[in-house]
């Protein structure tokens, strides 16, 4: 169903590098078709999230953060600041499709192609190595993380609770992306457990990698 003027706002924090956030984001868009919600996109950063705990991470993951994580989020925050937050949804879709579905990875030329596809200027690529918008990036990241705490990753989702205060949670981590009424049932169940005061965690071991086959 198309969102109405009274649609429930859903705030979604993502890093385009994360395949699990990408899966969850496609699920939320499925939910938007069957529940009266409207998704609002926000940027967070795996590089920022992990910068004070690099010694605890595997070497391969540290290398990925150093070489792959900063460029894309710098370009995306520049797009937001120079062209408005409304560009984030289409840009994220184009980035995620190329990076994850098509397996092209978060390379510089991939991000440049995504910008072109959604009609954003190539000049945004000037922010790849550094950007004056880093304070805005960190503020957006902090806004999401402050809602759920430090022991999480991306994505973060926040929705209004019954009392008007936001309920926020990490995830859900799911693969493949649920469709139709299955997506709606997961949404309803996620909100049900997240709205219980004192509820913190429901988890089981991942046995599958992200499956993009139905995206």
Q: What can you see in these coordinates?
A:
The chain is of the alpha+beta class and about 220 residues long. The chain has helices at about 20-35, 45-50, 60-85, 90-100, 110-115, 135-150, 180-195; strands at about 10-15, 35-45, 155-160, 165-170. It has a four-stranded mixed sheet, sandwiched between helices. The longest helix has 25 residues, at about 60-85. It is globular and about 45 Å long. The two termini are about 20 Å apart. This is DsbA family protein. It comes from Streptomyces chlorus.
Which keywords apply here?
215 residues; Rv2466c-like; DsbA family protein; alpha+beta; 11% strand; Thioredoxin-like_sf
Beta-strand content estimate? 5-15%
The number of strands is 4
List unreliable stretches of 5+ residues.
none
The profile of the biggest β sheet is:
4 strands, mixed
Report mean pLDDT, rounded to a whole number. 95
Spatial gap, N to C terminus:
19 Å
Give the strand order of the largest sheet, numbering strands 1, 2, ... along the chain.
2-1-3-4
Q: Name the shape in a single word.
A: globular
The proportion of residues forming helix, as a percent range, comes to: 40-55%
From the alpha carbons, calculate the radius of gyration and give it in angstroms.
Answer: 17 Å
Assembly annotation? single chain
Which structural category fits the helices and strands?
alpha+beta
Count of individual helical segments: 7
Order of helices and strands: EHEHHHHHEEH
């Amino acid at each position: 169903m198309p969102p109405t003027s009274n649609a429930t706002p859903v705030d979604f924090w993502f890093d385009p590098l994360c395949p699990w956030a990408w899966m969850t984001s496609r699920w939320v868009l499925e939910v938007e078709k069957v529940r009266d919600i409207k998704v609002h996109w926000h940027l967070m950063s795996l590089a920022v999230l992990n910068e004070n705990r690099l010694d605890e991470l595997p070497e391969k993951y540290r290398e990925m953060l150093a070489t792959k994580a900063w460029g894309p989020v710098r370009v995306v925050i520049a797009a937001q600041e120079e062209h408005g937050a409304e560009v984030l949804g289409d840009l994220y879709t184009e980035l995620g499709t190329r990076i994850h579905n098509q397996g092209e990875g978060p390379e510089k030329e991939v991000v440049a192609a995504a910008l072109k596809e959604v009609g954003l200027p190539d000049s945004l690529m000037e922010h790849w190595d550094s950007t004056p918008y880093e304070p805005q990036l960190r503020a957006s990241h902090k806004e999401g993380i402050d809602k759920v705490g430090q022991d999480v990753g991306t994505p973060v989702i926040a929705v209004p609770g019954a009392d008007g205060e936001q309920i926020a949670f990490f995830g859900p981590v799911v693969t493949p992306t649920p469709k139709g009424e299955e997506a709606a049932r997961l949404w309803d169940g996620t909100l049900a457990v997240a709205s219980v005061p004192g509820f913190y965690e429901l988890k089981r071991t991942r046995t599958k990698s992200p499956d993009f086959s139905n995206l």
